[in-house]
Request: fold
Amino acid sequence: MTTMSVAQAVAARKSVRAFTDQPVDLAVVEELLKEAAWAPSGGNLQPWRVWLLAGEDLAAFKARVVELRDEFPMGQGPEYDIYPPDLWEPYRTRRFENGQQLYAAIDIPREDRAARIGQFGKNFEFFGAPVAFLVGIERKMGPPQWSDVGMFLQSFMLLATERGLGTCAQEAWTSWHQVAYEMIDIPEDVMIFCGMAIGYEDTAHPINNWRSERADASEWIHRAEVRR
Ligand SMILES: Cc1cc2nc3c(=O)[nH]c(=O)nc-3n(C[C@H](O)[C@H](O)[C@H](O)COP(=O)(O)O)c2cc1C
Reply:
């Protein structure tokens, strides 16, 4: 196992959207999840809830989604707004450009809606990852606890990076929450936040060979000038 500094793991982590067939030991993923649970959370509530999917269970879950995709190509509908409606600047452009870059990497022109939908649909196969999970949070929890779940997820992704595993967090799964409740014993008082695809990166796949950008720090770091 290569050792990475935290800075190296942060820099190396990226969303991986194509995986090799190399199996992933579920025990390793469980270990990484337990390590990730050292993430901080307000009041130490540890509000994350995880449902692991692998092997035949993962296959059966994906097969049910495939069955329904003729009727619902984009999913049965999200349970929360993935983005606020009518996204405004600078977020609108950031999102747009990220999408452009992703589709350009795999030679899909913006106008080719069918191809874009086809690529988007790979979300619903966990991008071919051999292991995945759904992460949820009790509906009664609020924004502070959602933020805790985010820290837990990033901790998991960094630890996975260190182990040589690729990951992709997937809010897209909210669009299949009904299937998740139907197929998995997830209590209805838990809202599914997102999925996580986990596996070994297919480094030859062009979808993995581009890097998302970041806004210039001057757009969001402010030196507070305190009125006095
Ligand atoms: C909570 C969360 C949910 C996400 N959902 C999806 C998703 O459904 N599908 C997808 O392809 N990428 C998804 N992403 C990945 C983002 O698009 C990605 O993090 C962003 O473009 C920055 O790229 P990077 O992760 O490669 O640094 C998600 C990321 C986060 C943090």
User: Anything to note?
Assistant: The beta strands are 49-54, 131-138, 166-170, 190-199.
